[in-house]
Amino acid sequence: MSKIGVFICHCGENISSTVDVVRVAEETGKLEGVEFSTDYKYMCSDPGQTIIKQTIKEKGLTGVVVAACSPRMHEPTFRKACQEAGLNPYMCEMSNLREHCSWVHDKSEATTQKAIDLVRTLVEKVKLNKPLYPIKVPVTKTALVLGGGIAGIQASLDIANAGHKVILVEKDPSIGGHMSQLSETFPTLDCSQCILTPRMVEVAQHPNITLWTYAELEKLEGFIGNFKATIRKKAKSIDENICNGCGHCTTKCPTKKIPSEFNTGLGTRTAIYVPFPQAVPNKPVIDKDNCTYYQKGKCKICEKLCPTGAIRFDQQDELVELEVGAVVIATGFNVMQPSGFPEYGYGKYKDVITGLQFERLASASGPTLGEIRRPSDGKIPEKIVFVACAGSRDPAKGIPYCSKICCMYTAKHAMLYQHKVHGGKSYIFYMDIRAAGKNYEEFVRRAIVDDEVNYIRGRVSKVYEENGKLIVKGVDTLLNAKPVEIEADMVVLASAAVANPGAEELAQKMHVSYDSYNFFSEAHPKLKPVETNTAGIFLAGACQAPKDIPETVSQASGAASKVIILFSQNELSREPVVAVVNRSAPPVYSTCVGCFMCASACPYQAIGEELITDRKGNVIKRVAKVNPGLCQGCGTCVAFCRSKSIDIDGYSNEQMYSEVMALLNND
Amino acid sequence: MNELIQKATILLESNSVQVVIGYGKGSANRTRAIFITQAADCEKLIFDSRCIQNLAVYLTKQEIKKLGKPAIVAPIPVLRSIVQLAAENQIAENDLVVLGVTPESELVEFESFAAIETFLSTHRIEIEGKYQKTIEMIKSMPVSERFAYWVKELEPCFKCYACRSACPLCYCTRCTVENNQPQWISVASHPLGNLEWHVMRAMHLAGRCTDCEACYNACPMGIPIHLLTKSMLQDVAENFGTYGPSLDKLNALSSFKPDDKESFIR
Amino acid sequence: MTEFEPKIVAFVCNWCTYAGADLTGTSRIKYAQNVKIIRFPCTGRIDFMLLLKAFGEGADGIIVSGCHPNDCHYTSGNFHARRRWIMFRGLLDLLGIDIRRIQYSWVSAAEGAKWADIVNSTVKTIRELGPYTDYAKVAGYLEKEVKE
User: Fold this and answer.
1) Which of A122, A375, A393, A608 has the smallest number of Cβ neighbours within 10 A?
2) Which residues does residue A487 pair with via DSSP β-bridges, in sequence order?
């Protein structure tokens, strides 16, 4: 038999000024199963909570309804109070008399009547509540970090320095990511490699970090604290344990004309290659698609020359299964290939390049050793035009968002050009200058004032070649939309930052959500910026949205700290509001008929199957089973189940049904 | 159909199957489902235009399952139900032999459920014009009149659940109508309970119904309950474009598109 | 005769509309007393049978509200719910159950004013439509029989 206690809060005068709280207590006290009802000035205060606790003990209450403010405010408070008095915290419900009643209605009989209705509804619900117990799940204290750019590097180092094991997986032969390709970084103009390389080495040498380059995530299963990841370690065709990184093979490889990815196609590399001199690990891989031996069956020069005998042509991809407790996605971004803009002539004219290509030209380790030279003829450009927002903020190109980094790097590019090419002239076509950030605006000012970069507010309509010059046609909207024409030697497109080509597939593999541009979605745009909606999977860097290095590093440290918090516990406690598939006596065992429609509707892939067997192990029935570690308690499956075989604790069919009945039956 | 009889005989003689679910002579001029376990009885099998019962309903019944592996005589509506049952994990490919019968009364064998699906892609569900007109007529009534129309139509229902028994997709072990915690639908056959029962039945078939009309054919009171499911089939087509059974487990209700219509949502 | 006071039940999700209605309160925006909220974890949890039961128990109108598309706390509960509503509406409409009496809406946690507006406009609509006597008659059949 239910013994419910009803506690009506005045909330000072917040509730009692429009609701007759005494009458609410009186009326609800008459309800069947209500053992005790009272009202008090501040239920959440210490004396208020004491009333609840004492009554639970004295009257032996089986359930409590606190009619006060929103449960979103004080549900934890009152549940804790109940627990302290020995009542299961989930036997406590709150009726929202403040936000949903007293604050939105004037003082009247109808307002008091509504309050009575609301309390009665929760009384009927709480009668059907069941004691629930937090779900405990163990935690595997190893983190998987996907992506070895600056985001992945930072996250790995932070987690590893906190004393936890990290497995860092990078798809390319070296870690470093886009940051290793950059020349100098805004707003300080310090050399990117110089600040990054020590970090890369630290990763390689850290006792807590296992680095797997040339590897990709194949599959991810499981749930927070208990993921099972399958990693594909692509065949590098060398034995890394034997290779000493002498580099003989890379100098002697006869296939030399492969466009270098690292140099964005502005330089070449061999088929057996190390992507760049500072690569970590500094050991080569064989690019099978371009290797003469793999393609034609003859060559093996590298094998003959290798002093340690490390070449392994028969090496196969290896699939490795790992148990990890958390995952940090740090897979970065890409730049839009501006084949999307025929009007700018990218791909048609060699001297129309992307911002990333300009980085390579400006980099001391780049194909021109840091001299700004035209890809077509190697001449130093006397006039250079930068086009900001190439693709970004252009719904017609499918990218309505701002790529965020281009304003700053374009200013930097123009500045570097001015520093390197004395007497050169640089122009930047821009829509707006977005230089929000510490010392950013000052940086742009320096470009304009000290380095005399010509900023033209307007867009470029067309770029075409004429007499060896690139004619840039645009408009200056600050001069009454006056047409502008510049005869340039080189054009640099600040092409939009876009998601990686494999981002969508990766998101689906990991069951994290992604936006319409294939950037991964954070769990909450403000309050959970590094979490995904899948517990235990976190985001770092530009895979979530375009961002610059400082922001990426802070987000990576944020994600790392979330992982460290997770790993600070041996067991996780989860809200026990989860779905359960019913069980009944033989011969039915469960009313679930195993259609698994619920499984396809579950946003968390939390529903699997269970085989009910007899004592001899014969399968009697195949039914759905909810993994309480994965279930987040949305209840979509419950409304889906035709035979009502799946139900959710805390919002059960019986509870919701009785609420509807109680709410409407006030006569 | 000698071919059918021959095939069934071979299947039973070779013990490839233990029971053949097919149509046989019923009372008066009707046909009924028969369950043949002896090869010699196969000549009782008939197939003609009177064979409208959806035999797929037996595939999930425990009593029939106990007889062993079945072969089933499967005209188009049965084939559709088989595909839907397969999509819902109720039958497995190796658990039955499908003796398909084309609209031209030709026997056709299927190697896989996928082959049935392919075959059905050229035999799509179509809501007949007369039903479209009736549904349109009902929808054109003022709301109050429409409600009264249905209350009257459903009045003769005495909850015998023949509609449920005849439907191959109503295979639940315990129907929600038999669930009394809470009592979702009152047991008595009064107008509210009747209405709730038929709303629930139709909703449970939304995106799943294969339009075999077994429910209507089984109703002893001739209540046009198939209009409900037919109208929902139209709604599925109109709103989601998908139509008819598919081995793809995602049906109209277990899937979604982020840009589904929502003009009715404020 | 006293003015008709509609009974309206609101089925709302915990994360958006319930929080939005909290904001209506915090912002002290007034609305009619007729609407009473039942909290669900997600619109995906809202069983169509509960809507039917609400009419059966004398509701004159129903509000169903949750997170905007793409804002669902559980990613896709509202998308599943929306499909169910589309089918349910079609069926109810065919049966002559007055779908004008069910207001579906997306109200986010930031839309306190929108919640007040949804409540007030729904109350207005239901006032104009009057008590749901058609359904009440059908629902009352059993009681009458038992009383007799």
Assistant:
1) A608
2) A471
Domain A235-316, CATH: 3.30.70
Q: Is B186 on the interface with C (CB under 8 A)?
A: yes
Of A600, A642, A643, which is closest to B250 when you measure between CB atoms? A600
Domain with CATH 1.10.1060 in chain B: 129-240
Disruptive mutation site among A593, A634, A658 for chain B (greatest number of B CBs within 10 Å): A593
- Which residue of chain A is at minimal alpha-carbon distance from B205? A642
Residue A172 · residue A214 · CB < 8 Å: yes
Q: Any chain A CB within 8 A of the CB of B181? A: yes
Burial of A51 (0-12, 13-18, 19+ CB in 10 A): middle
Fold equal for A235-316 and A579-649: yes
Would the CB atoms of B148 and C134 count as touching at under 8 Å?
A: yes
Please provide the average confidence, as pLDDT, over all residues in chain A.
94
In this prediction, residue A617 carries a pLDDT of: 87
pLDDT, one tens digit per residue, over A451-476 is 999 999 999 999 999 999 999 999 99
Domains in chain C, please, with CATH?
8-147 (3.40.50)
Domain locations along chain A: 4-132, 134-234+317-332+500-574, 235-316, 339-498, 579-649
Q: What is the CATH number of domain A339-498?
A: 3.50.50.60
DSSP state at residue B150? H
Does the global pTM surpass 0.80? no
Predicted local confidence at residue A221, as pLDDT = 83
- Average pLDDT, integer, range A484-509: 93
CATH code, residues B129-240: 1.10.1060
**A655–B contact, CB cutoff 8 A:** no
Residues of B in contact with C69 (CB under 8 A): 258, 262
Range A4-132 has CATH code 3.40.50:
yes
The verdict on a CB contact (< 8 Å) between B89 and A595 is: yes
Query: A137 forms bridges with which residues in the sheet?
Result: A572
**A21 confidence band (pLDDT: 50, 70, 90):** very high
In the 3-class helix/strand/coil scheme, how is A144-201 assigned residue by residue? EEECCCHHHHHHHHHHHHCCCEEEEECCCCCCCHHHHHCCEECCCCEEHHHHHHHHHH
Neighbours of chain A (3+ CB pairs under 8 A): B, C
Q: Does domain A579-649 have CATH number 3.40.250.10?
A: no
> How large is the ipTM?
0.95
Q: Is A580 helix (H, G, I), strand (E, B) or coil?
A: strand
Reported in sequence order, the residue ranges of A297-436 that DSSP labels E, i.e. its strands, are: 318-324, 326-329, 333-335, 352-354, 383-390, 425-430
Chain B contact present for A642, CB below 8 A: yes
Q: Is some CB atom of chain B closer than 8 A to the CB atom of C48?
A: yes
How does residue A338 score in pLDDT terms, banded at 50, 70 and 90?
Answer: low
Asked if B90 and A595 come within 8 Å (Cβ–Cβ), the reply is: yes
CATH architecture for residues A134-234+317-332+500-574: 3-Layer(bba) Sandwich (3.50)
